[in-house]
Amino acid sequence: MQTELLLDAKATLGEGPAWDARTQTLYWVDILGQRVHAWKDGRDDYLQLDETVGCVAPRRDGGLVAALHASFWTLDGRGGQRTFLASVDEPASNRFNDGKCDPAGRLLAGTMDMGEKTPSGNLYSLEAGKPPRKLLDGVVISNGLAWSPDYKTFYHIDTPTRQVRAYDYDLDTGNLSRPRLAVEVPAAMGWPDGMTSDMEGKLWIALWGGARVGRWDPASGRLEAEVAVPALQSSSCVFGGARRDILFITSARVGMDEAALARYPLSGGLFQIQTQTEGMPAFEFTG
Prior knowledge:
mainly beta; 287 residues; 4-stranded antiparallel beta sheet; Neuraminidase; globular; 1 helix
């Protein structure tokens, strides 16, 4: 497998790719650049916001749902008109980070300490017509959400732990139970960041500081494959394309010095890998 550059975006903190199968559009965000991007047919358009945006996801009724600094909104995909949904009670030093929708149409999104030290982050579930509900607390950097193909297992990353934790997932209620270790990423490979899953139940994890994406078997915790990415801070990934066999990868430039940027000049770019694997779909928000 080879990594191909789609866009030399030079994003400060590219993150949160979400594939919209209905429109064949890849949405992604630059968290610190405060932008929502839309990539389609070789063209990238963006919506400039006035605050950080942790993640977006397609809505069943059109447009997007977004987790901004500490609140949830809907976004009109064209004009950028915003509609407030809910806010969360977070410390001023926290912001939303990664998130995505579950198969029932809830948005799960986590917060993090912007200093990346304090376990003040939380993972929330937002269901249409209901206030946000806290699923996990005591998180430093909430990242990497994914589900198993049967929807019965949920995976989550708290990046500084270098671990992927698995939970039993009740799709009817959205409740988590029976936490356990699924994968532990060796320090030499970088930090586990964004994550997606495929129809074989394997986890694809972008490795921050590792310039690569790895594929793990969560049943055994074993690394099965890895693909180099010409961006040191590989940040997240999602499957898309007509057959859901293209892995799209975001990356970042934040925190890199001149020497690192000289070695990885495409950092902050948007990439793709043509795989032989069918990925899990990206689900829509029902609100």
